Amino acid sequence: MKPQDYAQAAAWFRKAADQGLAAAQNNLGLVYYNGHGVPQDYAQAHKWFNLAAASGDADAVSNRDRVAAKMTPAQITEAQRLASEWKPTK
User: Fold this and answer.
1) What is the pLDDT along the chain (90 residues), one digit of tens a residue?
2) Is residue 46 within 8 Å of residue 29, measured between CB atoms?
3) Domains, the chain, ranges and CATH?
4) Is the dihedral of CA 86, 17, 35, 67 positive or negative?
5) Which among 40, 43, 16, 39 has a CA at the least distance from the CA of 27?
6) How far apart are CA 22 and CA 72, in angstroms?
7) Can you list the alpha helix ranges (DSSP code H) found in the chain?
């Protein structure tokens, strides 16, 4: 995919993730984890994986654990704070 394709995909995943769709939240986490279409950001990746996992997305649980292994405890705390403050935009 071209860089602009990743950015467009990230924008669409964000719209669906903001509405609470767990699969989109997991996909948005992957976007942030890999830095495709957005700057790589493990705290944002963890946040979206955490939200998707809370909604029952099994893949998000393993993805959250994978990104957490690359993060400091302070980064994980920040990601958890971001997830707890998130509200869907329905």
Assistant:
1) 777 899 999 999 999 999 999 999 999 999 999 999 999 999 999 999 999 999 999 999 999 999 999 999 999 999 999 999 999 986
2) yes
3) 3-85 (1.25.40)
4) positive
5) 16
6) 25
7) 3-18, 22-34, 42-54, 58-68, 73-85
d(CA 71, CA 52): 19
- What is the C-alpha separation between 49 and 60, in angstroms, rounded? 5
Amino acid at 2: K
The tally of CA atoms less than 13 A away on the side-chain side of residue 38 is 21
